[in-house]
Design brief:
This protein is an alpha/beta fold and about 300 residues long. The chain contains 13 helices and ten strands. The strands form two sheets. The protein has a seven-stranded mixed beta sheet with strand order 3-2-1-4-8-6-9, with helices on both faces. A three-stranded mixed beta sheet has the order 5-10-7.
């Protein structure tokens, strides 16, 4: 019935797997839990080996660390059940009904179900405020809100899909690094006329990156957008679903990209100071991403060390 798929990246998933296993056993369903381990982290691999004692849990490894899209595609290829439940490794259960809420949706091949993301109320350490603030403001949304624009709100953090449907699409492996794999998958679903259904079944997101790491990932995500601008076949749909690209196209059409880039370059150091503060501005953060996209146009080699 259900294959639970968790790619792991330097994260201890012992508690997550134990609680998933307990819930699945309690529901009396046929299930498996597949973990794709990052073999380069030998200490965590040894820790996770203990999970082999749980019936239905299987540990898998690849010879090298796989990109996010590659890892998810590999796990889906190894799964044996009709429905796939993808979960990010840096997750924690909100309650004991997570599996139960998904089971009524294991009934059709043409619907994808997203459970959502939640954040704990206590603030993280001061050097991680930016990621936490962004998550609380933009990712922690009710199903009612997410269903107003279901494809644009698609997230790989926690979602259910039939194995048949997934294998007919798979994640686009054009993007080798962090950022926008979920965007492209959501667009692929839309083009095929697949319904995306959002429900209130979130997991806590625990992996709150430090500001420096999150800014590096943000810049990588913007680089992925540039790759998509140059390679994705349906540019109109891409731009329609990504607000940053709509703003960028406006700058291009009005021939003001160079002026915005100049403004961004002159105040970038002030933006970075704000991002490392206790009160990071998400408006500035969006302008930073737009400015970085402009920078990629005018500089052929941009290093990820400017924070």
């Amino acid at each position: 019935m259900l294959s639970i798929l968790i790619p792991t990246y330097y994260y201890n998933v012992t508690n997550l797997v134990q609680r998933l296993h307990q819930q699945a056993v309690g529901e009396g369903i046929d299930f498996e839990i597949l973990l794709l381990l990052n073999g380069s982290d030998t200490e965590l691999v040894a820790v996770h080996q203990a999970l082999n004692s749980l019936q239905g849990v299987k540990l898998l490894e690849l010879p090298t660390m796989a990109a996010r899209s590659v890892a998810r595609n590999f796990l889906a290829g190894q799964a044996k059940h009709d429905y796939l439940l993808f979960i990010d490794c840096d997750s924690e259960m909100v309650d004991d009904r997570f599996i139960e809420r998904y089971l009524p949706h294991c009934e059709t091949d043409n619907v994808v179900v997203c459970g959502g993301t939640a954040y704990k109320k206590q603030k993280p350490q001061a050097n991680s405020y930016l990621r936490w603030a962004y998550g609380v403001k933009t990712e922690e949304k009710s199903a009612a809100i997410r269903n107003t624009n279901p494809n644009a709100r698609f997230s790989t953090f926690n979602f259910l899909i039939s194995r048949t449907l997934f294998l007919s699409i798979r994640f686009n492996e054009l993007l080798k690094n962090y950022g926008h794999e979920d965007t492209i998958f959501g667009l692929e679903l839309k083009e095929r006329g697949v319904e995306i259904r959002h429900i209130d079944n979130p997991l806590y997101h625990l992996g709150i990156d430090a500001n420096k790491i999150y800014l590096q990932k943000t810049r990588q995500g913007v680089k992925n957008l540039k790759i998509l601008l140059e390679n994705y076949p349906n540019q109109q749909e891409l731009t329609h679903n990504i607000r940053l690209l709509r703003y960028y196209n406006f700058l291009e059409k009005t021939y003001t990209t160079i002026f915005f880039f100049g403004l961004y370059a002159s105040i970038k150091h002030l933006m970075l100071l704000n991002f490392h503060s206790r009160y990071p501005s998400l408006t500035l953060f969006n302008l930073y991403k737009l400015g970085y996209l402009c920078e990629l146009k005018y500089r052929k080699h941009v290093e990820l060390t400017d924070d």
